[in-house]
Amino acid sequence: MEPAMPVLSTARGRTLENVACYVLLILLALVFLGPFYWLVITALKGPGQNVFSYPPQLYPKPPTLVSFFELWQVGPFHRYILNSTFAATMVVVGNALFCSMAAYPLARMRFPGRDPIFYLILATLIIPFEVTLIPSFLVVSRLHWVDTFPALIVPAAVSPFGIFLMRQAFLTIPYELEEAARIDGATEFGIYAQIMVPLAAPSLAALAIFGFVAEWNSLLWPVVVLKSQEMQTLPVAITFLDSNFYGGWRQIAAGSVLSILPILVVFAFAQRYFMEGLTAGAIKG
Amino acid sequence: MEATQVIGTRARARRWRSLRKIGIAYLFLLPAFVILGTFLVYPLFASIWYSFTDYNVVHAARFVGLANYQKLLSDDVFKTAFRNTLVYSVGVIPGCTILGLLLALLVNQPMKGITFFRIAYYMPVITSIVVVGIVWKWMYFEDGIINSMLRGLSLIAKPIPFLSSPSIALYAIMAVTIWKAAGYYMVLYLAGLQSLPRELDEAAMIDGANRLQRLWNVTVPLLRPTIALVVVLASIGAMKVFGEIYVMTSGGPADRTTTLVYYVYKQAFVFLSMGYASSIAVVLFLFLIVLSVLNIKVSERGGTVNY
To answer: Could you give the domains of chain B?
Structure first.
């Protein structure tokens, strides 16, 4: 978009334009990062420091980690962190395994019913979770899974989108590799596990990252299927604190900061997948 | 004799091999079938079935015909929830579409430090709605930072009750949704922008068009497929809003922020009227199915599928 040759616009005009752009960029950055700053300074304030005051106290003096330690007075936060980590990890494992397994025959094998099955799976992409919420809960409750990890993990362990993504990845792998392995006597499972999955690693990584973030942040389903305090995931626990401990701003802020950190770490390492991977998977007939 | 027998054995062996292959293919598909069937396909049909029953956890489901749907028509809270969802969508869709485009156009320029701004605008997207909702709720308080700033700038005499005023609350929530989602649409637009041919822009530049003229007359028209996609995705997202409401207002004040999904949740899991709640879910589904078909149409034109 930047002019290759400044044919008509003068250098000064361009500098002005650039300055205007930076001003706008910075103002917007303040709008988007401001709430995070507010959250962090609230978490870093001590017992004597006002969270709500006029004029507002824009930085903690002095900053202290005391709110993070006080967190454990209001709830077993290590449990919440463990619960969220375990559930999100298992959802990622489930998706990586089951989506790639389902995608393999759809992409690489010829068998009766393949295309109808693929279109059926594509069609399930449009079934909104909000609409299936009630019967899904009733299934979970009939299985006696209410307030257990399987309730959190199993329904999320396969996604139609994941199958679609993995199928696209498998379709691009050259047939020569597969043929060579077959001549060497590889089984279908061997081809899937030793050729397809390793070569589709970038798509698997994208699937894992999206699955982790989605599960880590999910709210409605955990709210519905979890009952006891020691099963709560971070979002559920923080909402619970927020509605039951009026005035616990600093502790709630500290818990919120803790709950964002892992996502930021994932984001720092996998920024590329967020910024580019979102549009992955072009439909090719 | 012997020859035909050999052929017969071979044919049988071939048939056995192909049967085995089919079996293997379906074994690969089995876990996905079981889970998607149990937690996606069956629940969809069950939702429709429950919407014709009076199921309420206490007693078994009894078929009641269209009674739930009749009740919807006279349920003031449902009507409010429906209206709220529409008003919310009408605010959020253009908000996301325009702000997302603005952000994308800004960060698509090859300027120093642009990656920082991309990340900054994307941060709310990966943050959980619980954290976002709580922080904004605090900022919206009468003694919160937003009112303090407005007061400091002498823009207001007394604090605005953002979330406790029935006439303002829904709009305050819209702002949070747009703030959280804009970065997501920015990334979609960026993908669209980066696939545009450069020649037209360069030609316009040689013709003496300035940056704004080129944006408005060249880039934006070329981006129409992406814009259409963003509009549809933002509509789907808006119809499904739940987290903001659950965290920030619990549907209040006086149901003025109760939306369809929040009302489904409340009827099903607070009042335990599963049958009645299902009829609300089915109404929601009818709207979403139209939007999803639009999504597929728009995605095909844009060449990508997005979730």
So the answer is: 75-301 (1.10.3720.10)
